[in-house]
Design a protein that fits this description.
- This protein is mostly helical and about 160 residues long.
- It has helices spanning about 5-20, 25-35, 40-50, 55-70, 75-95, 100-110, 120-125, 130-135, 140-155.
Amino acid sequence: MLTPAQKLETIKAFGLIAMTVGGGELKVNWAMSLLEQGIETENLCVLASLLNPLNEFEVDEYFNIVISELDLKAQNSEEAVEGYAKILAHEVIRGIISPEIGASKIYDANVFLDYPESFAEYTIYEDEWYCEHINGWSKEKRREEIIKACKVSYGLLEYPTLNKA
């Protein structure tokens, strides 16, 4: 039902939702984005139309119904955040986001996942001062190192399975 681009958007949204307490606003924004792209179910419309202040229980109820309607599989937090990090790495490689922003967001994923070894270098890359004063890197060298790390991360990380088996 979802296009490849919508699946990537969904993986990214699920990762952000997993890292955010409540996440109601992110869930509503994801639903609105899918509606704008032509995906439509009754409950997706309801989810997208919820207004602030959001009742997180109501948002969760409709979000779970929409996941089921779209034949999607709910992700565990770790899978969702790793998929989010893989998308960020790909966006850095393709030049969609700057290496500095990508490193900062992947670092946030690193913190959420309790500093797995697969993201260890982002602790350094996220810290501009450390890169400049301890490693002696110029801004350009830091950018190159981040892109190089993103290429490695992109190759190592997996996208979570979205559709039910």
